[in-house]
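Lab intake sheet, docking and co-folding queue.

SAMPLE TYPE: protein with bound small molecule
LIGAND NAME: NAP
LIGAND FORMAT: SMILES
REQUESTED OUTPUT: full 3D complex as structure tokens
PRIORITY: normal
SUBMITTED BY: R.K., bench team

The fields below were copied directly from the construct record.
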Amino acid sequence: MKPKIVVITGCTRGLGRAMIPIFIDAAWQVAGCGRDESQLAELRHQFRPPHFFEVCDVSCEAEVVSFCAAVLTSFGPPDLVLNNAAIINPSAPLWETSASDFSRIIDINLKGPAAMMRKLLPAMLERGSGVIVNFSSGWGRGTAAGVAPYCATKFAIEGLSMATAQDTAGKVAIIPMNPGIINTDMLRSCFGGGAASYPDAADWAKRAVPFFIQLGRKDNGRSLTVPA
Ligand SMILES: NC(=O)c1ccc[n+]([C@@H]2O[C@H](COP(=O)([O-])OP(=O)(O)OC[C@H]3O[C@@H](n4cnc5c(N)ncnc54)[C@H](OP(=O)(O)O)[C@@H]3O)[C@@H](O)[C@H]2O)c1
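RESULT FIELD (auto-filled):
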């Protein structure tokens, strides 16, 4: 049987990195991207072809075009796309956030997943199956002080996903996903030492990957959360 293919954006650290070995243990082939070339080289060394790790800044349209073309050429339409790559703003009220920092978080967290979907969905729709998970957050469904730019992008991910789900009508399922709260670089950047009381990414991935693998048409447009 042809192996299943998963695309993971932001696979060099955190949740994206932790999911790689779990998918490989489940006999999936992984195509991952991030910006850190040295981490990607290490991934290539550790996880040999057909797994595939390339530089792609999801906020750069040309890099998304080239990464997605390489995925489609090497593997064909993916079975699962995890739009995981994101950043968070340094904690500050909106009026102390520069216009360029605001644009940057929109470019990565919102325009990145949109670009990936634009490039991968046509082939997935043509085949007539597949799942796209767009990483949202608790801060995509509720708010907190100091993270307005991040909240704006994650609320937008919910809307982008649910509306795109209506366009695909479930032929490819589009799902906004709150991963939960996990001790990663991102969490440490906002919770400091308090992040240590949350599960680490490796433990989270053992729960999250089986949950992602069973997603399908029935879940199209549903706002889901990785079970604790
Ligand atoms: N951790 C949590 O508690 C939590 C809670 C709610 C939601 N989330 C969401 O879960 C996802 C993963 O978060 P995390 O905690 O694993 O974050 P993280 O530890 O900061 O890792 C983020 C990953 O995204 C990549 N990335 C950032 N900007 C990128 C860009 N422009 N292009 C390509 N890759 C980029 C980073 O790699 P490079 O630096 O190599 O590019 C890194 O691999 C995010 O969508 C986040 O919003 C996390």
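REVIEWER NOTE: The pocket of NAP is lined by residues 9-16, 33-36, 39, 57-59, 84-87, 108, 135, 137, 179, 181-182, 184-187 (CB under 6 Å).
SIGN-OFF: pending second check by T.M.
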